[in-house]
Amino acid sequence: MASHPSFLEQVDRMFAKAAALTDHPEGLLRQISLCNGMYKMEFPLVRDDGSIQVIEAWRAEHSHHKLPTKGGIRFAMAVNEDEVAALATLMTYKCAIVNVPFGGAKGGIKIDRKDFSEAEIERITRRYTFELFNKKFIGPGVDVPAPDYGSGPKEMAWIVDTYRSLSDDPLTAQACVTGKPIAQGGVRGRTEATGRGVYFGIRECVSIEEDMQRRGLTTGIEGKRVVVQGLGNVGYHAAKYMSEGGAVLVGLAEYEGAIHNPAGLDLEAVVAHRKATGSILNFPGATNIANSAEALELDCDILIPAALEGVITKENAPRIKAKIVGEAANGPVTADADAILLEKGVLIIPDVFLNAGGVTVSYFEWLKNLSHVRFGRMSKRFEQASNERIVKALAASMNVEIPPAEMMRLTAGADEVDLVNSGLEETMATAYQEIRAIALGKQTDLRTAAFINAIDKVAVSYTEMGIFP
Ligand code: NAD
Predict the structure, then answer these.
(1) Which protein residue's CA is at the shortest distance from atom 23 of ligand 1?
(2) What domains can you pick out in the chain, each with its CATH number?
(3) What is the pLDDT of residues 91-105, one digit of tens each?
(4) Spatial contact of 162 and 175, defined as CB atoms under 8 Å apart
(5) Full-model pTM
(6) Distance from the CA of 149 to the center of ligand 1, in angstroms?
(7) Helix or strand or coil: residue 221?
(8) Are 223 and 246 in contact (CB under 8 A)?
(9) How confident is the model at residue 2 (pLDDT cuts 50, 70, 90)?
(10) In terms of DSSP H, where are the helices of 57-208?
(11) What is the mean pLDDT of residues 63-80?
């Protein structure tokens, strides 16, 4: 094997380590691990100045054991076929781990967003959707994209609009993509879902006393010293919920540099400072770290890499001081680094579990689009009335008066965002306990346990199809 294995080779190494601890037949394991479909496209973009640029893009559908397939679209210069396939592979395992009934997919458009105007990005996104449509690589029951690095709700709105104009099924068209703005059929809580899921996953992990004791830590988020790399969608929201949960943000890293303050950094003030000055650096009271990657080596309890893959390698892994690494990004720890960190006793909460909040809430959005009803719409008032009857009966029996504001708080029925967040919390907590139980049973690490969990679930699908005995 090459000295620097590719991202896909890294994922396959992790798969092989887990597969060896299962007793599935070789052919089934091979079917589970290989990418089922890959569409590479090249299309022309007419730039604002009238010149023509050829855009390279991909869509990988890793596993058709369940349909639709699901996965984000990445807009970045580093995108290539290997990366798209690796990310699609992780999506299959991720969906299985959190019991979301989708196969894995991923898209990538090889551009640096900063080099293109908004109108050009729109033309690229719409043309990409058109290409996917032509090759049947998009559709509510086929393949459903979502945001990833470099894309967000706006791009998803262009995708649904383009798809709708091409599709002959207006009833389901809205479910062709998730992560949309609310007015376009999005679900409340989707934008922050991945970061919130990262928080729920870490909170579950640090709630287990024996696991914390082994690393010299107390239970709970409160007071944990945290470093976050990447303040985009995932990193910002993970940092926000960690800090609201009582963690101390001692380091924050962006591509232009990082800042450090052992006494804690105020996230919103840092974001405002970056917006005003164009850089995270020179934040009042913090120390600058010119080489952003060095922030990963800061003394902390929990390190959350939330930017891109391959940032913790065999070179810097020996210098990582965190006791817990929460993989918010996909693939931030290489396979070699994984072994080094495990040897040091670091608790790695793997990406295939930890950043699954996005796809979980995407699943809720897809359900909402297919059912054409907002979650909570039919039950909210009913719940409120039932709660009111109970609270009033209790208050009467205890002879107490409940002030109107308190009554409203106690009796409120669940709205869409409450149900989405509660479904996400349940999903992350249950999945963590599931993979931890496998890790204990097989005497292995959490990543290997998560992969075993996924392999077993995908294997059941194939076996039930009658393809494998
Ligand atoms: P994003 O584009 O919103 O944010 C990424 C941030 O990382 C940007 O602010 C960027 O400036 C910063 N960054 C880039 N290189 C950096 C570096 N070397 N050091 C520090 N910061 C750097 O992307 P995102 O959606 O937050 O995705 C981040 C990661 O999370 C990716 O690995 C993605 O695949 C994964 N992920 C995203 C979602 C989702 O719902 N968006 C879901 C699951 C996984």
Answers:
(1) 149
(2) 7-186+448-464 (3.40.50.10860), 193-354 (3.40.50.720)
(3) 999 999 999 999 999
(4) no
(5) 0.95
(6) 5
(7) coil
(8) yes
(9) very low
(10) 81-97, 118-134, 153-166, 193-205
(11) 97
